[in-house]
Amino acid sequence: MPKLKLTDVTQYVEDNIGVFHEKRVHSLDKLKLKDVLKSKNPYLFKAKNMLTAEQIIKSLTDAHISSNEETIFGDWLEKLAIFINEKVYTGRKSGIPGIDLEFDKDGARYIVSIKSGPNWANGSQLKKLKLDFISAKKTLRTSNSQLNVVAINGCCYGKNKKTDNGEYFKYCGQEFWTFISDEPTLYTDLIIPIGYKAKEQNDIFVESYSKMINKFTKEFSIDFCKADGGIDWVKLVEFNSGKIK
Fold first, then answer.
1. 73 phi and psi, to 5 degrees?
2. How far apart are CA 103 and CA 152, in angstroms?
3. Helix, strand, coil: what percent of the chain each, to 5?
4. Where are the domains of the chain?
5. What angle (nearest 5°) sits at the alpha carbon of residue 186, between those of residues 203 and 14?
6. How far is CA 141 from the centre of its chain?
7. CA-to-CA distance for 15 and 12, rounded, in angstroms?
8. What distances in angstroms separate CA 172 from CA 33, 55, 58, 187, 227, one per listed residue?
9. Distance between CA 74 and CA 78 in Å, rounded?
10. pLDDT in tens for each of the 245 residues of the chain?
């Protein structure tokens, strides 16, 4: 088993971290004000006594962006994890539905579903994860009934006390990164390369974000503010929650 070279990880991150930042900016370019307004709770804005268009715009867009960035970066981390595992265990992207990574270790075939953090799922999502693992095990054992298949829910950050969930194990944070790389300090070693050109990339994002806030504030003022400048709460709630005609 080859030892992971941090220089390989650093080079991979430097070559690919730009994809994450590009997708952040691209997601802003595609964002439409009315689409976001339809998905947020207008009563909450009133309960928080938001009085200006910019307050509402920043609140709803920041929440949307935060959620969207978590998804984009989670996808990016999944690719990083597969790259690292390939270097050590010749792991590969799985072709089985619901499974992200497959590799062999200590006489077992590991199938891994990679998530960002430990609190990613509700009850129905956990049930689906379990069913995905059961189906994947059956698929792999079709050609080899004696194959020892071990299922893992791997989380890129966080902690989790309970690791054995019956049909699968759950590894989070340090435990996950050590599991796929055999390097116990990898989870902290990643911090420096992931910050590659972060300021320059974020400056580009902030410029796009500022333009979007200004644009949305202007649109909101035209469509949902009264002549005296006050917010037309009735019109806003009707747009968000009125009966579909």
1. -70, -30
2. 11
3. 60, 10, 30
4. 6-241
5. 35
6. 31
7. 5
8. 36, 36, 32, 10, 53
9. 6
10. 789 999 999 999 999 999 999 999 898 888 899 998 998 899 999 999 999 999 999 998 898 888 888 889 999 999 999 999 999 999 999 999 999 999 999 999 999 999 999 988 888 999 999 999 999 999 999 988 889 999 999 999 999 887 888 899 999 999 999 999 999 999 999 999 999 888 998 999 999 999 999 999 999 999 999 999 999 999 999 999 998 87
What is the reported pTM?
A: 0.86
Q: Compute CA 241 distance to the chain's CA centroid, rounded to the nearest angstrom.
A: 29
The three-state secondary structure class of 92 is: strand
Q: In 3D, which of 3, 2, 19, 5 has the Cα closest to residue 194? A: 19
